[in-house]
Amino acid sequence: MKLTLKSIFTLLFILVVIQSTVAQKATTYAIVVGIADYKYIGDLTFTVPDAKKVYAFLKSQAGGAVPTNHIRFLTNETATKANIMKEMNYIFSFARPQDRVIFYFSGHGATGFFCASDIRINGNEAENALWHDEIKDAFKKCRARTKLCIADACYAGSIKGVDTYKSVRQKGLGLEEKSAGIAVIMASKYNQTSGEDARLQQGFFSYFMIQGLSGKSDVNRDKIVTIKELFSYVWKNVKTYSKGRQVPIMFSNTYTMPVAYLN
C-alpha cells in the first residue's frame, strides 16, 4: 500500500496523541499506616487489620489497581515518625499535577498530631509526634491536585485533648479549601474516641469506610463511589453503630471526587 504524505502526517499525529494520552494518564500514590504496638504508650487492637484492608482496596480494581511501588505500607515498628515522613515525602515526590495522593492513618492521635509507633509523652511534651503541620508540608510540596487524607485516630490514655471541628477546618492539615480536589475525613469529633469492635474485628470508622468503598455507599448505582457518597454512608453508620458516641467529620472543596470504581 502506497502512503501519501497526508496519510503519513495523519499517522504521526495519531501516534503523538496516543503517546500524550498514555503519558498524561493519572495514577495514585499512597502511604498507608496502621499502628497497634506502641513502644511507650498503650497498644491498640485492630488498627493494623484496618490498614491492611485499605492497602488491599487500593491494590484492587475498585481502588485503582495502584502499583505496589506506588504505595508505602507501614505498620508497628516500621511506622516510626522518621520513617513515615521519609516515605511520605519520597512517594509523594513522584506525583504529577494530574495524579492523586492519599494518606491513611490508623492509630492514636491527639491535639495537633498523630502518634507514630515510637512516640514518647512526657507531660505536655510529645517526642516523635507526627505533627499535622508536617503532614501539611508533605501535601503542600506535592504537585498532585487531588489529595485525600483519612485518619482513624484514637484519643486515649494519657494523651489529652483533640482538635475541635472549627480548628480542624482552620488547620485543615494544611489542605486549604481553596486548593483543587481536597478532602479530609476524620473518624470522630473533637470530644470523642474512635472505637474498635471485637465483633467487627476493625475500628468502627474503617469498617464502614471499607464497606462503603466496596459499593454499599453507591446510592445512585452508577458504579462510581464519590467522596460525598462515601462520607454520607460512613457518617450515618458509624453514628448509628456507636449509638452517637462517635461521629465522623469531613471538610472538602469537592463532593464529586471519585474514590472507588465498581465492577
TrEMBL record:
Keywords: Signal. GO terms for biological process: proteolysis. The keyword Glycoprotein does not apply. Residues 29-256 form the Peptidase C14 caspase domain. Gene3D superfamilies: 3.40.50.1460. Pfam families: Peptidase_C14. It comes from the Bacteria. Transmembrane segments: none annotated. GO terms for molecular function: cysteine-type endopeptidase activity. Residues 1-25 form the signal peptide. This is Caspase family protein.
